[in-house]
Amino acid sequence: MKNSRISRFIIGLLACIAIGGAAFLIFWNVQAEEVMPEIDQAKLMDSNRTWIKTSTSIAIEPNLVVPIKGDNTVTSIANNGDLILDTTNKTVLTKMAKVDSKYREMDRFRIRIFANKVSTVMNPATFQYTHDKVDGFLTSYSILNGTLEKVAGKGFNLTTTVGTPLQVNEKLETDYSSRLAEKIAPVLGINAKISSQYLEDEFNIEAGEQVIAYPRQLHYQFSAEKTSLVFFKGDSDEEIEQPVGLEYVIKK
Question: For 74-88, how does the pLDDT look when each residue is reduced to its tens digit (9 = 90+)?
């Protein structure tokens, strides 16, 4: 009789542990798969228009900025909120050519930035990594320190047809240095489940113009820390390259 009670107690205890564990796993999975909040589109567009009103320049490279206002320069907000700058300003183009050889003999420069990335690209302040962390099952991930660079990826030619607008529909990929980088991406406001994004654009070109496109990217370099079971810690150097738009170098 006593053994029977002990057996029932053990079975009950194991059942409680199993139910508690299942409930914890369900809660963790819900938390882990929680959809990142969407930004109100109207507020996003108003915010992006503000950058134009304040005449903030676009940082193309560490020592190169492109003003969004000036002669022969048109800057606008697309219907989906993307920021578009298109310039043939000779002074600006000459300055760009002196900084980077890829801009030499350029007759026109155009850039389109994803609506939800305009604020990050335009903000001239030094990027500050947060001390937030991502909690997983018995494991948490955080960023210790790092840097952010606004860079251009590898260029590619776009096929043009005389007499018709150039239509662009490019798939831009987010690259992670490791699985750990993907795990920690939410700390940077990056949804790792969205591995790529399409950029659609359309603009007129003149006869004889050649167009080379360069993906605009945010290059995050940081030291990541992984903590397991509260006290097991390890860190590694990680990188994430996230696309934020396209720039076009147009030459005749």
Answer: 999 999 999 999 999
